[in-house]
UniProtKB/TrEMBL annotation:
InterPro entries given in the database record: Disease_R_plants, LRR_dom_sf, LRR_R13L4/SHOC2-like, NB-ARC, P-loop_NTPase, WHD_DRP
Region (Disordered) residue spans: 693-712
Domain Disease resistance protein winged helix: start-end pairs: 180-230
Top-level taxon of the source organism: Eukaryota
Keyword Repeat applies: yes
UniProt keyword Cell division, yes or no: no
Keywords: Plant defense, Repeat
One Gene Ontology molecular-function label: ADP binding
Domain NB-ARC residues, every copy: 10-87
Record-given protein name: NB-ARC domain-containing protein
């Protein structure tokens, strides 16, 4: 280069005469890209390939609208391998040559704080290779920011500092709010969104509702990888994934700043009386020693939210907390009915109350109607089987999540990971630390749930709601309600008044009440998600739904019926269909093939006509991305015809009852198939046959086999 008078001109000539790979790392702005492109005279018909690496999605999409990809954080095993390889490069390394299980465990704790970011992991590995060590109890983020050995991370920190400095005022509190949740803790998307709304971080505007604005904030943080989808896939960025977790690196950064902002403070381990101070959000960790003296020294005058992990203590609630808006006790143990009565008495301004998983809660107190500001009530997986009459006084209540057994389907699973698609031809391939293809409001729950024991007085897993529910016109989401009781038909009549419903779950559907159900659902203007649990011998009881809701995107049908309602074929906006019924016939499979928007199809049946499933018809199931099939010994074969499912990427197979034989034919015709998951109880021959077929597939899809189970 010293001999070249004009290196830009020299590079330009190289690009004209040779096929080159060009890597541009750390691109910070669209203006920089325009200058580089103009200086080097990039041409679209050039044979070279350009790889651009940026932290900003807007820069990535500006460089290439189509061919760009989000660099997800490494999974823990890959991260550990990278750390060990990097840290073991010198004889002065602080990493032991023969690490013990305790060393590996400590390394994993450290890696979680790295957030799976290869740049950070390599920097830490090099630090250890030079003989330094990082204690997990030390100020991890402070060390990365200030120690000279981490100079390679200056660009990353410059970008993070710049982003936080220029971040919109409405989004910044949502970011700091993430530090409430422990590292690697799985967070339901709806839980986070509803909490933001209750805190006032997302409000109604002229253009959008508070929930739509909160979803937009969620997507913004997802695009920045501050929020990640566990086991994320190529589909996860444009699907409405139900589970997420906070990136460990960004969580450490947020924690190092949140105390300066005086927003979140945490009780963890052993705390002294003088080590804590006031703040808006208090998190009680599972490892905290529950010291009453320490707790009594805290100033609760500004407290807006209380989140508890681990065991509950009655002294956690105080009459000094009267302006608390959010009380989140999801999966907290030892919460009693008496504790709940105190919560209702002392926290009158609650907008969000989650008792999900608090199994010792058996009832809501009669005084529950005093929570006049309540917007979200989550009592799923508690022992509550009936809502008190005072519930109807809660005119601001929008979301009721209930149900007393895990037999009810829940939106807490994720798509398993698969490799990203590779474009056939591309002049510019852009990697970005943030990626979002197309937004779609989809939820992908697991197809197979373990059936749990129904609790006493509960026949269908739902809760009995009081008369007068039809007056709660603010309701957007109510699931799951039990209509098998004597008042069931009257309750269904009242549902017609809930014109703002977006999501509805009903159990205990039978012939005696199906007329009222069909009337309540028919032509509903806003309903987007419908889940129904039907009793035995209820074939045809849903046929009277006419016309079906036009906006319906998710439909789940469970029960002992052997015939699909004919109106399913009219659901032009249906994106997800889950069927767990008695039997499916071939003409019903054919009925589903032309649904124009169907992305996810989950099939689970006791009987299959002629013991087979056939997917046939050119360009049928043309928008299907994910297919899940539950197999038993009665299903002998699954066949894919020519040109079927042209966009299918993921195939999930669940076997039960130790399936002896299961023949798949036509897998090679699924041209963009990229992953197959086999789980459950099956014979070795099933796995061997599947592996053999996939080995011949032109796309070489990944094949994941989960440990076999003997359970049915």
């Amino acid at each position: 280069m010293f001999r070249i008078k004009d290196p830009v001109q020299e590079c330009r000539e190289l690009l004209q005469n040779y096929k080159c790979l060009i890597v541009i790392d750390g691109l910070q702005s669209t203006e920089d890209w325009d200058q580089i492109k103009a200086a080097l005279a990039f041409q679209r018909d050039n044979r070279s390939r350009i790889l651009v690496i940026s932290y900003e999605e807007s820069v990535a999409t500006y460089c290439s609208k189509d061919n760009w990809w989000n660099v997800e954080g490494l999974e823990i095993d890959d991260a550990l391998d990278l750390l060990i390889r990097t840290a073991s490069t010198s004889r002065w390394s602080s990493w032991p040559s023969d690490p013990s299980p305790a060393d590996i465990e400590q390394a994993k704790i450290l890696l979680h704080k790295c957030g799976g970011l290869p740049q950070v992991i390599v920097a830490v590995g090099n630090f250890m290779a030079e003989g330094w060590s990082i204690d997990n109890d030390d100020n991890f983020m402070g060390t990365l920011e200030t120690h000279p050995a981490f100079g390679s991370l200056r660009g990353l920190f410059d970008w993070v500092h710049s982003y936080f400095h220029s971040c919109e005022d409405l989004l910044k509190p949502c970011i700091f709010y993430l530090s409430i949740f422990p590292v690697n803790h799985k967070i339901r998307r709806s839980r986070l969104v509803r909490r933001w709304i209750a805190e006032g971080y997302s409000r109604d505007t002229k253009e959008r509702t508070a929930e739509e604005n909160a979803e937009e904030s969620f997507l913004d943080l997802r695009k920045l990888n501050m929020i990640q989808v566990p086991g994320s896939t190529s589909l996860s960025s444009f699907m409405r994934m139900p589970l997420c977790q906070v990136n460990g690196f960004f969580r450490e950064y947020i924690i190092s700043r949140s105390m300066e902002e005086n927003l979140v403070f945490e009780l963890e381990g052993h705390c002294s009386v003088n080590s804590q101070h006031t703040g808006r959000h208090l998190t009680i960790g599972s490892t905290w020693d529950r010291d009453m003296s320490v707790y009594g020294s805290i100033d609760f005058s500004r407290l807006r939210s209380l989140t508890v992990f681990g065991e509950w203590e009655s002294f956690f609630i105080s009459d000094k907390m009267r302006i608390v808006r959010v009380l989140d006790l999801e999966d907290t143990s030892s919460v009693t009915d008496g504790d709940l009565e105190q919560m209702v008495k002392l926290l009158p301004r609650l907008k969000f109350l989650s008792l999900r998983g608090c199994k010792e809660i058996t009832r809501l107190p009669d005084s529950f109607g005093a929570l006049r500001q309540l917007q979200t009530l989550d009592i799923r997986h508690t022992s509550v089987v009936r809502l008190p009459a005072s519930t109807t006084k809660l005119q601001k209540l929008q979301h009721i999540r209930a149900g007393t057994t895990v037999q009810l389907d829940d939106d807490t699973s994720i798509v398993d990971s698969l490799a990203p698609p590779q474009p056939e031809t591309a002049v510019t391939s852009t990697l970005s630390m943030s990626r979002l293809r197309r937004a779609a409001t989809l939820v992908l729950p697991e197809l197979w749930t373990h059936c749990g024991r129904l609790l006493p007085d509960s026949h269908n897993g739902g809760v009995v709601v009081p008369r007068g529910i039809g007056k709660m016109t603010a309701l957007h989401n109510i699931s799951v309600i039990d209509v098998s009781v004597a008042s069931g038909s009257a309750i269904l009549e009242e549902l017609k008044n809930l014109s703002q419903l977006r999501k509805l779950g009903v159990s205990g559907v039978k012939r005696e009440n199906c007329k009222e159900l069909c009337c309540a659902i028919s032509d509903h203007a806003h309903l987007e998600s419908l889940s129904l649990w039907l009793g035995t011998n209820q074939a045809g009881c849903l046929d009277a739904i006419s016309p079906p809701p036009k906006k319906l995107e998710s439909l789940k049908l469970y029960g002992q019926i052997d015939k699909l309602p004919p109106w399913i074929k009219l659901l032009s906006n249906l994106r997800k269909l889950k069927l767990r019924l008695t039997m499916i016939r071939q003409h019903e499979v054919d009925l589903l093939k032309d649904l124009p928007s169907l992305n996810i199809l989950c099939l689970s049946f006791k009987e299959f006509e002629y013991g087979e499933l056939r997917f046939r018809g050119s360009r049928s199931f043309r928008q299907l991305w994910i297919l899940e099939i539950a197999c038993n010994s009665r299903l002998q074969s699954v066949t894919f015809g020519d040109h079927v499912m042209p966009r299918l990427e993921v195939l999930k197979i669940r076997c039960c009852n130790n399936v002896p034989t299961l023949n798949f034919s036509g897998l090679e015709k699924l041209q963009i198939l990229r992953e197959v998951l086999l789980r459950g109880s099956y014979d070795n021959k099933v796995e061997q046959d599947m592996r053999s077929q996939l080995g011949k597939h032109q796309n070489k899809p990944g094949f994941k086999v989960e440990p076999r189970s003997n359970s049915s």
